[in-house]
Design goal:
This protein is an alpha+beta fold. The chain folds into 4 domains: 40-147, Trypsin-like serine proteases (Thrombin, subunit H, Beta Barrel); 168-262, Thrombin, subunit H; 272-358, PDZ domain (Pdz3 Domain); 366-451, PDZ domain (Pdz3 Domain). 16% of the residues lie in helices and 37% in strands. It is built from 9 helices and 24 strands. The chain has helices at residues 45-53, 110-113, 249-262, 279-285, 303-307, 326-333, 366-375, 396-399, 419-428, and strands spanning 57-69, 86-101, 105-108, 118-122, 128-137, 142-147, 168-173, 181-195, 202-209, 221-224, 229-234, 244-248, 272-276, 293-298, 314-318, 321-322, 341-348, 351-358, 377-381, 386-391, 407-411, 414-415, 434-441, 444-451. Helix 7 packs across helix 9 (419-428). The radius of gyration is 24 Å and the shape is globular. The model is unreliable at 1-28 (pLDDT under 50).
């Protein structure tokens, strides 16, 4: 069975060995006042912002030990037969982060710490502290760390709800051990959808800026001219020149709060799968709308079902916020909490109406329900593998030729080894427009796509 091994890339080069933290080092302190000898004309808003936030910006140094099996390139080029010797190697990477709260919470990007076996936080004044990974959210590229220290200088947290195109922004990082790297620019756009480098997921609702954001300052704060954090820098679009992205801080707040409380993102569930309304689909449904998110599936017993939403309804607003695509709907509902009511403006048969939906927790078996309803597959655990136990007649899985005994080795780009992992990955992708299953049969692995629509 083909297995996917994820290696931590040497994006930033190998650093020096991580030094042990010394107890004689001073505690991290807030910024000292700007010297009185500096004239008022030099104390620009950008200088003040950079000066005040630098003590909270850190360098993240990681080390990962990876194992990989060497295979015979002639007789077993893809490793199907499990031959060859397993070898270990160590990789290192560097990125940025910042102090979220003074009690030791550090925020950075998921890709900065992915697969790390050891994480060290290097503070602006030279102090090093080992960090523990509290949790991650790959869908927003966020990671939350904790260091055993109190009284840290935390960055002031602002809001991303009132951002304006054209306003000045400051990106700060601590890349490659070069403390205090500052770039400036303007806020170029809001609500951007950007694919990840490996094309396995699409990040939504990103802030776009022309401030330089590179792998080294990825994970650091993006600040407004008042010195408040409005986003977390993300370096994901290496092919572009003069284009940087950041995670909106309001979305990050919800993710971070969930990770600190639950250990993972506690996503509220509506139970409506949507697709972007196209002119062809609008014509087929008899709508005169040009934009929106059309409901393609309602899960029975879900909050959407209870509220009276139907397949074919077109969502045009969420809590007064215009919706023009599936991504916009997903973004607008991403920060909902379980039990929270939200007003959806929909168009049904040419008439607009408002329906209130009370978001809830997804059922524990939602992922396996999705697999059964969408693809027509039931599965079971067998020797650290997920085996297809039953294929419903005339289902989509039956149409593409899946059979009992086939193995599901991955879903939506993630490897799975048991039904628990499969269920979890499917719940995480419950709002996707399709499911991508990696199915092994004999020596071959097939990637099969199952649309979520009815």
């Amino acid at each position: 069975m083909l297995r996917t091994f994820i290696a931590l890339s040497l994006m930033f080069g190998c650093g020096k060995p991580i030094a042990e933290s010394q107890t004689t080092q001073p505690r991290v302190a807030a910024a000292n006042p700007i010297p009185a000898t500096v004239s008022a004309s030099r104390r620009t808003p950008i200088v003040v912002v950079a000066h005040n936030v630098l003590p909270s910006v850190v360098n993240i140094q990681t080390e990962a030990t990876m194992r990989r099996r060497a295979v015979d390139p002639f007789f077993d080029p893809f490793g199907f037969f499990g031959g060859g010797r397993e070898r270990s190697y160590t990789s290192q990477s560097l990125g940025s982060g910042f102090v979220w709260s003074s009690d030791g919470i550090i925020v950075t990007n998921h890709h900065v710490v992915e697969s790390a076996s050891r994480i060290t936080v290097n503070f602006n004044g030279g102090r090093q502290l080992p960090a523990k990974l509290i949790g991650v959210d790959p869908d927003s590229d966020l990671a939350v760390l904790r260091v055993d220290e109190k009284g840290l200088a935390a960055a002031p947290i602002g809001t991303s709800s009132d951002l304006m195109i054209g306003e000045s922004v400051v990106a700060v990082g601590n890349p490659f051990g070069l403390s205090g790297t500052v770039t400036t620019g303007v806020l170029s756009a809001l609500g951007r959808s950007v694919p990840s480098q490996d094309q396995t997921r699409t990040f939504t609702d990103f802030i776009q800026t022309d401030a330089s954001i590179n792998p080294g300052n990825s994970g650091g704060p993006l600040l407004n001219i008042e010195g408040k954090v409005i986003g977390i820098n993300v370096a994901i679009y290496a092919q572009a020149q003069g284009i940087g992205f950041a995670i909106p801080v309001d979305r990050a707040k919800k993710v971070i709060e969930d990770i600190l409380r639950y250990g993972k993102v506690h996503a509220a569930w509506i139970g409506a799968v949507t697709a972007t309304l196209t002119p062809e689909e609008a014509k087929r449904l008899g709508h005169n709308l040009q934009r929106g998110a059309v409901i393609v599936r309602i899960f029975e017993g879900s909050p959407a079902d209870t509220a009276g939403l139907r397949g074919g309804d077109v969502i045009t607003e969420v809590a007064g916020r215009p919706i023009d695509s599936r991504e916009a709907f997903s973004t607008a509902t991403a920060t909902l909490k379980s039990g929270q009511n939200v007003a959806l403006t929909i168009n049904r048969e040419g008439a607009a109406r408002t329906i209130n939906v009370r978001a809830g927790d997804p059922p524990g078996d939602l992922g396996l329900r999705i697999l059964a309803e969408v693809a027509g597959i039931r599965v079971a655990d067998e020797r650290r593998s997920v085996v297809v136990d039953d294929v419903v007649g005339r289902s989509r899985a039956a149409e593409v030729g899946l059979q009992p005994g086939d193995l599901i080795v991955g879903v939506n780009g993630a490897e799975v080894n048991n039904t628990r992992e499969l269920n979890s990955q499917l719940i995480a992708g419950a709002e996707r427009s399709s499911i991508v299953l990696s199915v092994a049969r004999g020596r071959y692995v097939y990637n099969l796509t199952f649309p979520m629509g009815v």
